[in-house]
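Troubleshooting: if your tokenizer reports a length mismatch, compare against these two reference records.
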Amino acid sequence: MDYELLGKIKGEELKKLDAEGCAALCGEIRRALVARVSENGGHLASNLGVVELTLALHRVFDLPRDRVIFDVGHQSYVHKMLSDRFDRMETLRQPGGISGFQRRDESPYDPFGGGHASTSLSAALGFAQADRLNGRENYTVCVVGDGAFTGGMIHEGLNNCRGDLRLIIVLNENEMSISKNTGHFAASLLKLRNSSGYFRFKRKVKRVFSKTLLGQKIYRFSARQKQRIKRAIFADNYFEQLGIDYLGPIDGHDQKKLELLLNEAKKNACCTLIHVKTVKGKGYEPAEKDPDVFHGLPPKGKPSAVTFSEHMGKALTERAKKDEKICAVTAAMASGTGLVAFEKELPDRFFDVGIAEEHALTFCAALSAAGMKPVYAVYSTFLQRCYDQLIHDAALQRLPLTLLIDRAGISAGDGPTHNGLFDVAMAFTLTGAEVFAPLDFDAADRFLDRALANERISFIRYRSGGENERINDLPYLDESVFLRGRLEERPDGVIVTYGQYASEALRAAGEAKARGKAVSVLVPESVVPEKALTEALISRIPRDVPVLFAEEGVRSGGAGERWQDVFEKFGRRMKVLAIKDPFVLSEKGQTPYETYGISAVDMLRKLFG
């Protein structure tokens, strides 16, 4: 697709575009977004919604000397196009390509990495304070969606905003109202406050009155009176109560007004928040009508099937209809974790706490203490945010709790920020916790029933997507301890693994067979090496063959290290293959398993090396 402006006009040329040119460029950006995200997958609706805003930021500020930090960073595609990566957009979310989030090592235009919500303001504050301490006069701009304000970190950051920082916060409201203005007079005052004449008059009055002592007193008095009037008309403004200058709200798709307020914020001698209102999916009708569906798209050609998320949501709903103690909890991920049906059918026992994973965990612990059966559905990467609550509020008090760990394992498209590689290591630090890794839906149902009935913390982990035909027909070798696998009569080696990663172990066994070697694959669906399971597994491994424990998770503190210790107590040796560096970036032409050194070839090399 050829463009007249996009990719050809940058930097100072971008700032010289007239209104007609800006509108044309925004149109090209939207066409490019739809084309690229439809092909590669990724976040579409959120990027379509910030086209004019991102263009305004690039026109008003001196990037990358000034900094722009997008909360989460999933809406930074337009920023990448307008900076230095348009010619690489075809590699978006591909191995060795550009990230779907901001990433420091990708470009000087990305000052701070992202992937999780509510972190941006704390980071922006750090940059702004460093600039103040070093006498630098550049600006830091933080773009935060209204959804992120359901996360506590944003409010912690707001509480620490100093008035003298060159920090500009752009509140991008696209779903919920944060400050409500009422009445025709309020609307008229908003119109006045969003005009260039108002700001010029305001600065002139301040200059005139500041020349004399009496004038200074009059100005301070009038400013206090103005604040009282504003509070009466607009109600208490949360941000101004914190000492942050507030501008807006304005139409986030009005290029002229956006640039007016951004320029005014630069002239302010204090921390300023600009409130903009945008439409998710703007300019692409399907995304405007259904922004949830177009929030994150799979790559082109990816087959649709019933996912573990959808199945577990349905299974939980069916059980909750029969057991009034079952509650479902999510942190702004009802759709992603398959809980939409539960929310619709059992709204009184469905709790979406917003982007507040830590709160969700403690909330679940208290529900449990009060005799309920809470089930917390959360992505593995976001569970990392509530490790303290897992220890202090749940495990320490020995409270039963069920966690449905979604998106466990490597996230090929989203990359390191969304990889689910730490949940097993976290679970293994909690005394008495159970960890289940079902291979198919029937096993998932069995473990859900067990988790809801027992008095322990139970983790049920599964990857994105549905059942894997390669592994869902693996026979049970001992159903009483949930041990599955494929045994060779005279194996030359044995691979032990768990979860959907078992498909790679079977691939390794197939490659070994092609080389004239027989490899057994043992897959415990209950991952913790309890006595009965360990004995059942060891009894199926000849003493004189090499054994490898392979996992799609971190090596340090992971299941492999625990199993290795247990095997040593039985006088047996076991090698471990796991991820040593969970933050490594993918290389072009590599599979995710190759990137992390845990591919089928790596298994055989480690097993027989």
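Reference record two:
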Amino acid sequence: MCGIVGYIGDKQAYPILINGLKRLEYRGYDSAGVALLNGKVDVYKCKGKVADLEDFIGKKPIDSKIGIAHTRWATHGEPNNVNAHPHYSQNNDLAIIHNGIIENYASIKKELINRGYVFESDTDSEVLIYLIEDIQKNEQVNLFEAVRIALNQVIGAYAIVIVSKHEPNLLVAARKGSPLVIGVGKGEYFLASDASPIIEYTKHVVYLEDEDVALIKKDEPLVVKTVKNKDKTPYVQELELNINQLEKGGFEHFMLKEIYEQPKSIRDSFRGRLNLEQNLISMGGMIEYEHKLKNAKRIIIIACGTSWHAGLVGEYLFEDLARIPVEVEYASEFRYRNPVLSEDDIVIAISQSGETADTLAAIELAKSKGATIFGVCNVVGSSIARATHAGAFTHAGPEIGVASTKAFTAQVTVLTLMALHLAQSRGTISTTRFHEIITELNIIPEKVEKTLKTSSQVKEIAERFKDVANFLYLGRGYNFPVALEGALKLKEISYIHAEGYPAAEMKHGPIALIDEDMPVVFIATNRGTYEKVVSNIMEVKARKGKIIAIVTEGDTEVKELADYVIEIPETEEMLVPLLATIPLQKLSYHIAVKRGCNVDQPRNLAKSVTVE
């Protein structure tokens, strides 16, 4: 969610901070601000976008070689200038930026009010910086010690960076539950919520771990301790990220760029793992737990949003191919219903960012019950990558658009590899059938390329339905999760109400909504329950609904019934989601553009959801 940027060194801080905030705009936010140190702490902040912040600052003094910056996604207190970050301490000597939630802020705030403190904002973040100042004053300790002591008194999640007027040559940072990465340069340091603001300055980074507190001084080695005052040795990693991956590359929006990157991102997800010549799938992350995976009595998939839809496809894959029972759970509900877990269970946690707070909490619960946790995520060094026992990176590359596109197909690709690998090791698939599927998977990127050429039909449909109030998406079998994902994309970026349903369930309620103004999207490919879906289409047609159908090339039956048809290449039934999702992503995109919506930064949404 919120974005953090910090700098200390010999360069001017302000351009680095503003550029960093722009790199983090994809995370979702409603206000922005900076704090610059030059004899005193100057805080500039306002509601709105980073561009609004730049206009607000105008010709105000910005000369500084140390500073912090923030984009806020509102939790405590409405989006406004006062609640925006950074927040001053009571005497304006300190400033803080904070991601996460301090759960016991109310009791701390009450105690501080009793001591005479007066608060300006409604945020929990301001409470934290007041507490740090109070400790520093009453216990006569330096800023680092005050932060460490304060963090032993708070409950919740945080990634914080603090600057002090009285200690002008340092930054103090800490994290628990919210990501924070430190870029290591020559005599300088960069801080951010993820590596995207750092990569153009250095490829050497340190990922802080939970309850780490860092003392960051220019021209001095990085010092890291735990909140319990235990020394730690920072582990410096080299980023694989490329700066070109963070640019639009000639596309109007990041979302469109990422839709068109899917042939590459899918191939990168199975590159080095799929071996046609040896009729083999090899996944290094599965080797250590091969025995447990092979003999698993049950798989539980936990995820949120688009990743949950990928998990639903995974349910079909694992049960169909490997014959293992699967349950797919919303991570946000999983930990609150006292789930039955055992040491024989395999839990697969899916997250694009690797920082999803609900999924992380569910992982910790599952680990406490002795389950083996396998992570599927896109970001190396992320919290989920570190919290799981084993896992597989999707290798989709950075996804900037808030509405996931290539992340979904990359996750489905990795789940397909896992299911095939387990099917082979468990002996639930013949050698011939295994080879047929991996041969088809190997050419899916080319078929995605072909599917991407449906722009004219999609734009025509988008123009026709851009002003409707509701959409219905229907599919069966492997295409039911595709219907859910298609509906979610439309909701996220165009703000049109849309629902995804199993096609057979339409007659149990949603059919009441069908009239001549209701567009209904059918994923009606020629595998599985094709004839049943045709019957569902006829039910809609009888009620004058407008039918948009995703069909297999060469289809004639659905073409005669539908008002609009988009063809995709023929493929294995289990691989259809990798193709059928593409035109639905493009439909959502073009409708949103025609409605004048902010495609890459839809309102109220955040890319990395780091609060529960």
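Descriptive notes for reference record two:
- Residues 225 and 231 are 4 Å apart (CA to CA).
- The chain has three domains: 3-244, 248-452, 453-599+605-609.
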